[in-house]
Write a structure and sequence with these properties.
6-stranded antiparallel beta barrel; Elongation Factor Tu (Ef-tu), domain 3; 44% strand; 6-stranded antiparallel barrel; OB fold (Dihydrolipoamide Acetyltransferase, E2P); alpha+beta; disordered C terminus; 6 helices; flat
């Protein structure tokens, strides 16, 4: 049954149901005096019922090749006729092209000449050749120049000389700098030391690694230290007559250990060097002197190249590790010089290579010429071979588009070869049925031009985008099928996809099914009274309805209302008035 036929039946059934529903609404479940002559009736019977989807489309081969030319020419001879069976590789036709024939001879000759030239190349220069030595020195000089320029480029990034902290930046982003410009002060961030001035008398009692108690005046707190270094050169001073004399004090460097105080450079200290302790650990001998705190290591960072400060990468007070980039400098001239040095080195190396192995370079060029000439031979040979058109697959010559003597152009279609061992067709399915389909579902396919023949098929494609027309959306479905003698591309066929089938079940005509407040109902005549009976249903294919509960086999139900004068013929179905439903679709209830 086609999609449109099913739709008409559905519309008629809905109209009948609508009329009966109005009657049910008015009369409810009240009994109505009735006789069987007033109604078209049927008996509940057992039988088969199936649900399926039909659709019409055209058959096409799964394999179809359109043979086209690769070059222009004239059709010289055709070896097959339409409808002929061919095997892959069988000749189909021959095309003539004098230009391709001449070009084949030319490219072959050019390839042979290139091969001969490749064999005549000479040997490279010897090692003691003066020109070679000059070229080698030129390469070495260019390498040195490039290394110097790249070293200058590396200096465009100023890096931390050791683990520490940036104390102060002298410049900001965008400022110009020269080589040797002070840009920042860098110091150890977590290592402090004290510079204390001890007298000559005290100095003789102090030695390295002695314990020191450091009192930080500004913090009014103590920290521990050890004598790190002793200077035996006294501080000098000048008098009013510019005479230099000793101050009598000497510098002692004290390293501070494990301090948790917030120490800052320049803080004043009072430092006590422990000379000795008694058995109880009490200090019995010491030497003291004033001093001040400073970083253990400080370095002024200066540029090694000129340029413009592009970006400050680490901020003041930030702790960084050795080698961390602190700021970057831009200098277009240095970048240009690096590129120029690379070009000069590449040229020098290339010149040396030409001197060392002139034939090697020539060989490479000649080898390239040979390869190009050989490729030309292959290309023209392929075009020459294409003048004899071969079958790309096993199949049938479905169409020949040219005749002997015809002039053809490149990419013109010559013939079509199809393989009908497998075919496909597309049908349109209503949006109400599309979700009932699954990949692999079997289908029975009937070909209009081949009566009483059926093919088996299966669903291989379900579209997710549909086509809407007059408020109805349909979706294309692809079915894969086999073959049969006489099948041809474009033949019209009808496919029936079986959704569900049940045998030996109770069933009633679909026209007898009513709906009342969402419940499925039928009408029965009992004691000459029309009554509504609730039922439960299964498959409903628009013609038959499966009864799962509420009716028994042989019960009489009302299908439709008749006139008292109507003469109803009972043909084939006991208790059924008006027509024999079993003859509507033999062996196939829809």
């Amino acid at each position: 049954m086609s999609f449109l036929t099913k739709r008409k039946i559905l519309i008629i059934c809905l109209a009948i149901v609508a009329v009966i529903t109005v009657s049910v609404t008015v009369y409810g479940n009240r009994s109505i005096k009735a006789t069987s002559s007033d109604y078209l009736t049927a008996l509940v019977q057992r039988g088969s019922i199936e649900s399926s989807i039909d659709g019409t489309g055209t058959l096409n081969p799964s394999q179809r090749y359109a043979l086209k030319t690769k070059s222009e020419g004239t059709v010289e001879e055709i070896f097959v006729t339409e409808g002929a069976n061919v095997k892959k590789g069988d000749p189909i036709m021959r095309i003539s092209n004098d230009e391709i024939a001449l070009q084949t001879e030319k490219t072959q000759l050019e390839w042979e000449i290139a091969c001969n030239d490749l064999e005549t190349l000479s040997t490279p220069l010897s090692e003691d050749d003066f020109e070679r030595q000059i070229a080698e020195l030129d390469v070495e000089q260019c390498k040195i120049t490039l290394e110097n320029k790249e070293s200058q480029k590396d200096n465009l990034i100023l890096k931390a000389p050791f683990d520490g902290t940036i104390i102060d930046y002298e410049l900001t982003e965008g400022e110009s700098v020269n080589s040797g410009t002070l840009v920042a002060t860098f110091a150890t961030s977590d290592k402090m030391e004290v510079i204390a001035d001890f007298s000559e008398r005290d100095l003789n009692s102090i030695s390295k690694s002695m314990e020191v108690r450091v009192y930080v005046k500004g913090l009014d707190d103590y920290c521990k230290g050890t004598v790190e270094e002793i200077s035996f050169d006294s501080y000098l001073k000048s008098d009013d007559n510019d005479r230099t004399t000793s101050t009598g004090t000497f510098e002692v460097i004290i390293s501070i250990t494990n301090s948790t105080l917030a120490l800052r450079p320049g803080m004043q200290t009072y430092n006590t060097v422990i000379m000795g302790r008694d058995d109880d650990g009490k200090v019995i001998s010491f030497r003291s002197a004033d001093g001040y705190i400073r970083y253990c290591q400080t370095e002024e960072l200066k540029t090694e190249v000129s340029g413009t400060i592009a970006e400050i990468l680490s901020q003041e007070g930030q702790k960084v590790n050795e080698g961390t980039p602190l700021l970057s400098i831009t200098n277009d001239e240095i970048d240009r010089q690096v590129k120029e040095a690379k070009v000069q080195l590449a040229k020098a190396e290339e010149d040396l290579a030409l001197l060392l192995s002139p034939e090697e370079n020539t060989i490479k060029n000649q080898e390239l010429k040979v390869a190009e000439a050989h490729q030309d031979v292959l290309t023209i040979s392929e075009q020459l071979d294409s003048l004899t058109v071969l079958a790309p697959i096993d199949g049938i010559v479905a169409n020949i588009a040219i005749d002997p003597g015809d002039a053809i152009t490149s990419q013109q279609e010559l013939a079509v070869i199809s393989n009908f061992s497998e075919n496909y067709m597309e049908i349109s399915v209503d949006e109400l049925d599309i979700n009932k389909l699954k990949f692999g579902q079997e289908a029975s396919i009937e070909i209009d031009a081949l009566p009483d023949t059926f093919l088996k098929g299966k669903v291989t494609g379900i579209a997710y985008e549909g086509d809407s027309n007059n408020g109805v959306t349909t979706y294309p479905i692809t079915l894969q099928t086999g073959t049969i003698e006489g099948i041809k591309a474009g033949m019209t066929a009808t496919a029936t996809i079986l959704l569900e089938k049940k045998d030996d079940v109770l069933r009633i005509p679909a026209e007898a099914l009513l709906s009342n407040n969402g419940k499925n109902m039928v009408r029965i005549i009992k004691d000459d009274e029309l009554q509504m009976e609730p039922i439960k249903v299964g498959i409903n294919n628009g013609l038959w309805v499966e009864i799962t509960n509420g009716l028994e086999e042989g019960e009489q139900i009302v299908v439709a209302t008749t006139t008292s004068s109507a003469e109803i013929q009972m043909n084939g179905m006991p208790g059924m008035g008006g027509y024999d439903r079993t003859k509507q679709r033999p062996n196939k209830s829809k």
